[in-house]
Amino acid sequence: MKILVLVKQTFDTEEKIRLQDGQVQEDGVRFVINPYDEYAIEEAIRIKEAGDAEVVVVSVGPSRSEEALRTALAMGADEAILADDSELFGDEYSAAKVLAAIARKDQYDLIIAGNQAVDDGSGQVAVRLAEELGIPHISTLTKLEVNGNEVIGHRDAEGDEEIVKATLPVLVTAQQGLNDPRYPSLIGIRKAGKKPLTHVTLADLGLTAEEIARKSEVVETFLPQPKTAGKILSGDLSQQVSELVTALHSVEKVIG
Amino acid sequence: MDFDFTPEQKMIRETVRDFAQREIKPIAAELDRTERFPIEIFEKMGKLGLLGLPIPEEYGGSGADFISYCLALEELGQACAGTALSYEAHISLASMPILHFGTEEQKKKYLVPLAKGEALGSFGLTENGAGSDAGGTKTTARLKGDEWVINGTKIYNTNGGYAKYVVLTALTDKENRGISAFIVPTDAPGFSVSKAYEKMGMRASNTVELILEDVRIPKENLLGPLHRGFRQFLATLDNGRVAIAALAIGIAQAAFDTALEYSKSREQFGKPISKFQSVSNKLADMAMHLDLARNAVYKAAWLHDQNRPYTKEAAFAKLFASETCTQTCLDAIQVLGGNGYMREYPVERHLRDAKLIEIGEGTSEVQRLVIARQLGC
Ligand SMILES: Cc1cc2nc3c(=O)[nH]c(=O)nc-3n(C[C@H](O)[C@H](O)[C@H](O)COP(=O)(O)OP(=O)(O)OC[C@H]3O[C@@H](n4cnc5c(N)ncnc54)[C@H](O)[C@@H]3O)c2cc1C
């Protein structure tokens, strides 16, 4: 079995976001593997350890993402692909197109991704990829069973659990709780440097800039307003209700 | 000149940082309070390959360079200095002498389990009459047939209560004060340990007395050449000094981080105390000393990795890093004021831990002697 794992390098969730001229500042920031992708990598390695599988990790992102891929290799993945040609960068639509071109170069039985990336939080890339490839997907898994050709996914459905069956090839996305990702072993880290890591470009993938051009535009980037003190309503119940309704209309303007 | 770490060194540091911050730091205050040696942490470190970090793969280690090992110590030291001290003793003091002076059989039999984390090691040099003056060793080893018979008492032994193997020194030639080194399994009849010392700091690390009464070990457990153990240990101490200096950097960094953050949030006279010059000047000095001490450690580690002489630089690093560490902790307490003196904040613990590094593996006075000797004085 051949497994492809989608990996994105994101800000450490403990980092403070700094903006300058509408751009998020990256200097001095600690980058980590997107936490949801860590579950995906761990799951793939467990499948490999339980049976016979080859695990390829792939990332679309700047060259610094190599660190994230090397960490995945240190955890136990076999091979890495890094699409760090800036011509390949765009939005979720572009990323899915690029990943589809990479996935088509081989025969993957199972594709595992994180449910979302903690930076953009769009939750779109993986499911778009399934659509591009014309394969089914099961999202937000908290448990995954693979028996031969059959896959059973337990998915987190807003607090309920949904059990979904599918046949390979399939794409699944990982939710928190799927597993407890391992630390890479020190020997694993030393071996990771020698495992194959291929860089791919727009030309390598036989794509054109038009085909993958972004469909969305970032209009503005801004930090959320700092929280101000709340207001506690007082008086009898009907008074509170009417005060609340007035505030929602005219102060918060959430009802028009 | 290149001040960058390799990708591998960076990844090792990140991994150890994650491990130390998630698994060790949350229990550091409790380990200090209860004087508990965290054996479960050592089991986890063993599985990760940390306990054999700078030991070659062929002997069960992870085969990383000395700089990586120092980075690991820095990270562990930031989380819990006592745990880091036991880790350092296991590698620098117990495993390294076997790597450098052991026979192939000794490495297979003793170094492999130590490096794989299946066994913990300790090192016994210090005795009542042999502290800074290791030549004052009174423990004796006599060859009887195919066995060495060892008698004596070793004090201040790090890891002794949990170790499976102890590397120790004993007199083998009384007339010429010939000292030799031995590998002693702690389950040998006649071997016992005292109850753990009550210490000022480094309380997560286990420190005991070793008592050897007619302990018999096979003839082939002699480590290195006969009567020349003393020289061997001087060589061991060089790498240990760099390692323990890296640990000092970790403690100092933790104290500095706490002080800096505190100074920005604590307000007096209507502004953060970091805006008062006497506080910010102190923080500037702390940052500068810490950076210079760190550079001294990396340089000594780099020389070691390049197989160049580094005795003087190892002493520079140990002396400067340990004294910087104590001063940084004192200053951090000062920046925190009354809170700095309280158990609720970690800096008083950092100070208690820091002080040991000016004593263990050669006192500051001895480091100055070593440096002066290197200068030909
Ligand atoms: C927590 C802890 C853990 C330890 N772990 C180990 C271990 O695992 N294995 C081990 O073998 N040992 C260990 N030690 C022992 C440690 O290495 C010694 O304490 C240290 O070398 C100093 O020896 P001493 O205590 O006998 O002091 P002394 O040698 O008696 O020194 C007392 C004072 O005299 C000064 N002094 C001595 N000689 C000179 C001189 N020639 N010139 C100038 N000043 C001098 C010293 O600098 C010091 O200030 C440990 C100690 C501690 C506290």
Automatic annotation (TrEMBL), chain A:
GO terms for molecular function: electron transfer activity. Keywords: Electron transport, Transport. Residues 21-209 form the Electron transfer flavoprotein alpha/beta-subunit N-terminal domain. Its cofactor is AMP. It comes from the Bacteria. One of its GO terms (cellular component) is cytosol. InterPro entries: ET-Flavoprotein_bsu_CS, ETF_a/b_N, ETF_b, ETF_beta_N, Rossmann-like_a/b/a_fold. Heterodimer of an alpha and a beta subunit. The electron transfer flavoprotein serves as a specific electron acceptor for other dehydrogenases. It transfers the electrons to the main respiratory chain via ETF-ubiquinone oxidoreductase (ETF dehydrogenase). Belongs to the ETF beta-subunit/FixA family. This is Electron transfer flavoprotein subunit beta.
UniProtKB/TrEMBL annotation, chain B:
Its cofactor is FAD. The keyword Protease does not apply. Belongs to the acyl-CoA dehydrogenase family. This is Acyl-CoA dehydrogenase. It catalyses: a 2,3-saturated acyl-CoA + A = a 2,3-dehydroacyl-CoA + AH2. InterPro entries: Acyl-CoA_DH_CS, Acyl-CoA_Oxase/DH_mid-dom, Acyl-CoA_Oxase/DH_mid-dom_sf, AcylCo_DH-like_C, AcylCo_DH/oxidase_C, AcylCoA_DH/ox_N, AcylCoA_DH/ox_N_sf, AcylCoA_DH/oxidase_NM_dom_sf. It comes from the Bacteria. One of its GO terms (molecular function) is flavin adenine dinucleotide binding. Residues 6-118 form the Acyl-CoA dehydrogenase/oxidase N-terminal domain. Keywords: FAD, Flavoprotein, Oxidoreductase.
